[in-house]
Amino acid sequence: MNNQLTWLDKAIFYEIYPQSFYDTNADGIGDINGITQKLDYIRELGCTAIWLNPCFRSPFGDAGYDVEDYYTVAPRYGTNEDLVTLFREAHKRDMHVLLDLVPGHTAVTHRWFKESMKAEKNVYTDRYIWTDSVWEEPRGMGCIRGISERDGSCAVNFFSHQPSLNYGFYRPDPDCKWQQPMDAEGPLATREALKDIMRFWLKAGCDGFRVDMAGSLVKNDEESKGTIALWQDIRRFLDGEFPGAALVSEWGEPDKSLVGGFHMDFLLHFGPSHYNDLLRCDEPYFSRRGRGSAREFVAAYRENYEKVGGRGLICIPSGNHDMDRLARRLDPAEMKLVFAFLLSMPGAPFIYYGDEIGMRYVENLVSVEGGYGRTGSRSPMQWNKGLNAGFSSAPEEKLYIPLDDSEDRPNAESQCADICSLRSEVKRLIAFRQKHPALQSRGSITFLQDGYPLVYERACASQRIRVVINPSGEEAAVSDTGGTILYKVGNAAEIKGDSLYVAGGTAVFVEA
Ligand code: NOJ
Ligand code: CA
Questions:
Q1: For residue 393, which ligand has an atom nearest its CA?
Q2: pLDDT tens for the 512 residues of the chain, in order
Q3: Is 362 exposed, middle or buried (0-12, 13-18, 19+ CB in 10 A)?
Q4: Which of 345, 323, 344, 325 is nearest to 335 (CA)?
Q5: What is the CATH code for 442-511?
Q6: How far is the CA of 53 from the centre of ligand 1 (A)?
Q7: Where are the domains of the chain?
Q8: What is the DSSP letter of 271?
């Protein structure tokens, strides 16, 4: 099960929301060729891998998380050949690409769903979860009903236009005949269809998948035993045909996802992780006001870490297309310390496009493609000071989402030229991580203090590095550090006698 991939051990991911990254044909929407053209920018930053948000045919009711055809790149982004070129150009640069796999639901416009809505039985009748009568709702799931010839209501997985694919029920309720067991013909066919999609793109040259809502597939599965078994079966298929395929889950429970065969799991910004106590609340821990708390985050992290026996493969993102930009609550100096943290934690770090330059959350936007409050974090990448911030040469009103219109909006070109910029610091921190195995994905972590400063030790067989981060405005002292200061971000740090003094707004790495 999940044989380790060495590239993943040192991977630093860059998440790309394709519609907003770089537009090469002046239609106002980013495209695959645009990503290929910007690979050198990503590589130069130090990132070694890409997570590409869904780029397949879709009615775009949920920005592409409503897939209409898993096998075809959405024309607005280009062609399948363009995507294959992206894989090839990434590989030339020793980079890897994960596609976003959405196994839990499709768009209502998917051919499977259209067939499934028909009254007459066909091979897609059981591809989705349908009750036997339009008047019966699938309990606890929300549904689509009243639009099919078929008499039934169909369970949904997220928005009400995203019908749930049928992988079966772990414990079908005997009173609900429509709940099929996992090994019934329909659920098994869905599973094989999923394998076919994976096979198609792995053959085309992708390196694996970030899996959307990976824990949601099997229903009536409180302990996730069915879903874990399903992923184990998929991992066996991959090990047989594509042993190098990487799997990273949006699940947030590494004790389940890693057992299911995922290489790494994401720390989620919702649920019990307390991740946003650090970054996105009224008093974030990383604010220099120093009124936040990392305590509950550390406790939750530790609990997960222990549950998986110290396999710290929990990926922490700087942000993503579902949450506010870091810059909504923190300034560039504060964000430098955030990156000192993110880039010294176990698991692969994920940098959301534009977070490396501190792109802002664009306030008060009307929802675009099911973004709602998330829309402000999905605005076009700011490349330079030129027209449309260098994102596109289309007329401004044609841009997919309006740009941050502030005069001092950050841009990549200026920050690349300024050694004091956030981006330059992120680049140095990445290079520092890449030189020190203790700081990488598989090094162990021991938290030593969870107040101000936050102190933890990262270790591997050859090295021990203590990380001390003091986001507050006040100097802090840590005793018993010893060793030498390897690197510092922010203001000042000094070892005097047996103590390390860390000025406010400073992070320091000490070799023990
Ligand atoms: C999680 C994705 O990140 C989000 O953008 C999407 O809306 C839901 N899953 C549904 O697929
Ligand atoms: Ca375009």
A1: 2
A2: 445 799 999 999 999 999 999 999 999 999 999 999 999 999 999 999 999 999 999 999 999 999 999 999 999 999 999 999 999 999 999 999 999 999 999 999 999 999 999 999 999 999 999 999 999 999 989 999 999 999 999 999 999 999 999 999 999 999 999 999 999 999 999 999 999 999 999 999 999 999 999 999 999 999 999 999 999 999 999 999 999 999 999 999 999 999 999 999 999 999 999 999 999 999 999 999 999 999 999 999 999 999 999 887 899 999 999 999 999 999 999 999 999 999 999 999 999 999 999 999 999 999 999 999 999 999 999 999 999 999 999 999 999 999 999 999 999 999 999 999 999 999 999 999 999 999 999 999 999 999 999 999 999 999 999 999 999 999 999 997 678 999 999 999 999 988 999 999 999 999 98
A3: buried
A4: 325
A5: 2.60.40.1180
A6: 10
A7: 6-104+187-365+408-434, 105-166, 442-511
A8: G
Residue 221 CA, ligand 1 centroid: distance in Å = 21
User: Which residue in the block uniquely carries the two structure tokens 């994920």?
Assistant: 350
Could you give the CA distance from residue 510 to residue 346 in angstroms, rounded to a whole number?
17
The domain 6-104+187-365+408-434: what is its CATH number?
Answer: 3.20.20.80
Between the CA of 65 and the centroid of ligand 1 the distance, in Å, is: 6
Pocket test for ligand 1, best of 65, 369, 377 (most atoms within 8 A of CB): 65
Indicate the pTM of the whole model.
0.98
Note the ligand closest to the C-alpha atom of 157: 1
| CATH code, 105-166 | 3.90.400.10
Closest among 262, 198, 310, 250 to 8, alpha carbons compared: 262
